[in-house]
Amino acid sequence: MAKKSAIEKNAKRQKMVERYAEKRAKLKAAAMDENLSLEERYKARLKLAELPRNSAPNRVRNRCEVSGRPRGYYRKLKMSRIALRELGSNGQIPGLVKSSW
User: What role is this protein assigned (predicted)?
Assistant: First the structure.
């Protein structure tokens, strides 16, 4: 099980990303727009830099929803390899059979 503080920090970042997503998208579009003047694009870049760092989507870490583990994460299942194996062994994931030979 991961530290509760790390899980909470990641959840806080996720909420911040959702809160600033629209504003960030508008500023990014303005900064990349070739039709705007150089000054306007520069101002958009400065405003983008003023936003909180934790509002950037790449700062959110994929974590297992079962254990909170940050590594060995399967995106499709939203869980780590260890949690997947444990639930699969218990027969709690339909269609998953632990191999044996």
Answer: Binds 16S rRNA, required for the assembly of 30S particles and may also be responsible for determining the conformation of the 16S rRNA at the A site.
